[in-house]
Amino acid sequence: MSPFQSRVLQNPITRFLTGRSIAYEVNRTPNRNAYYFAWLHHRAGNLMPENSKITVTAPAHLHTGNFDMTGDLGRLYGTVGFAVDMPLEIEVSKAKDVKAEDEAAFLFASRFVDAYKLAGAEVVVKRSIPKFVGMGYHTTLALSIGLALAKMYGLKLTTEQIALTMKRGAITSLGVHAFKVGGFIVEGGFRVAEREKMIPPLIFRQDIPKNWQFVIAIAKEPQEKIVKMRENEDHILRNLKLMPKETSDMLSRLVLVKIIPAIVEKDLKSFGEGLTAFNSELGKFWNEYQCGRTYCHPVVEEAIKIILKRSTCACQTSWGPTCYGIVDKRKEAEALTKELKDFLAKNGGGEVYCVKADNTGAVIGGK
């Protein structure tokens, strides 16, 4: 670097304009162009007015499960699930450093700011998804922050690029595609040789009928144990035994010739039967982490039984403790919601929600 270039980097006017060091080639001839280049660099990284705010609203998601944990065909996992209308909402504004009251929001904003050498950001979580219950709070938060910052600083990034930067969605990308497009989602798993280096592709997506309602029960009693398990999730997944080929074959058949055709035909009965069979069979594979049970806790097992009295669909999402059913009549939804609330009130407490699907994905706005 020439002495002149060094002076440009350290000049107080340049520092004031940029708030950080500049890395670019400038003309070696000392003249006023250097300050103009500094100003351009500042504008390139600060396209929005200083008082602007970006809002992102994005849906929660529900897992049904993974259909290939064998990997003999070159890919692993592959995920089935939904985007549902339980939105996360954040507001992001410019700042000289990273500010956020939510610990996870601070982590993700810092990660993005450091990755792209940005000035900073303040993140406010205006509305939240329930945390650590298998509904995608952290993935949805990370992608929302990344999308807002990309918009604010004029970065042309895909959702998949944001996900890789945030280190989310590389094992199962249901949350990435729920964020991007909403609806019912099947993703194809990651290539075994590229674990954590790619986002598994979306291979099927369908709007969910507007009259289908998700009744979602989140039992309180198992939550402390599941939070501790989630802290060891990376270790568990890296050391997970391979699924028997016969099980992957059966789960894949359920997806291909039962679940997908049923939602295309809007046949909730057949769709629910396929989802329940898929989810319960998968639960047997995970039972060593669930004390030998198909579902994560006895309370969840009983909630599943209650759901099955009114719906052909009854599934646990991810590690739990959330479980859900789908019905297409409002009275059935109201009755099931009440039954689950009464049950949880007598069995350690919890929350029950009745919501529709989200067929849109994330929505970004500005002020």
Protein model, in words:
By secondary structure, the chain is α+β, with helices and mostly antiparallel strands. It folds into 3 domains: about 5-45, no CATH class; about 55-210 and about 360-365, Ribosomal Protein S5, domain 2 (2-Layer Sandwich), CATH 3.30.230; about 215-355, Alpha-Beta Plaits. It has helices at about 5-10, 10-20, 35-45, 105-115, 135-150, 160-165, 175-180, 225-230, 235-240, 245-265, 270-285, 300-310, 330-345, and strands at about 55-70, 75-95, 100, 120-125, 185, 190, 200-205, 215-220, 315, 320-325, 350-355, 365. Helix 4 crosses helix 5 and helix 12 runs antiparallel to helix 13. The protein is globular, with a radius of gyration of 24 Å.
Number of strands: 12
Which stretches are poorly predicted, pLDDT < 50 over at least 5 residues?
A: 1-47
Radius of gyration: 24 Å
Task: State mean pLDDT (0 to 100 scale).
Answer: 88
Total count of helical runs of at least 4 residues: 13
Notable traits:
4-stranded antiparallel sheet; disordered N terminus; Alpha-Beta Plaits; alpha+beta; about 375 residues; globular; 3 domains
Chart the SSEs and their pairings.
Elements: H1 3-10, H2 12-18, H3 33-45, E1 53-68, E2 75-94, E3 98-100, H4 103-116, E4 121-127, H5 137-152, H6 159-166, H7 174-181, E5 184-187, E6 190-191, E7 202-206, E8 213-219, H8 223-231, H9 233-238, H10 245-264, H11 268-285, H12 298-308, E9 314-316, E10 322-327, H13 330-345, E11 350-356, E12 363-366
Parallel strand pairs: 3-4
Antiparallel strand pairs: 1-2, 1-12, 2-4, 2-5, 2-6, 5-7, 8-10, 8-11, 9-10
Give the structure's gist in a few sentences.
With 367 residues, the chain is an alpha+beta fold. Helices cover 42% and strands 23% of the residues. The protein is built from 13 helices and 12 strands.
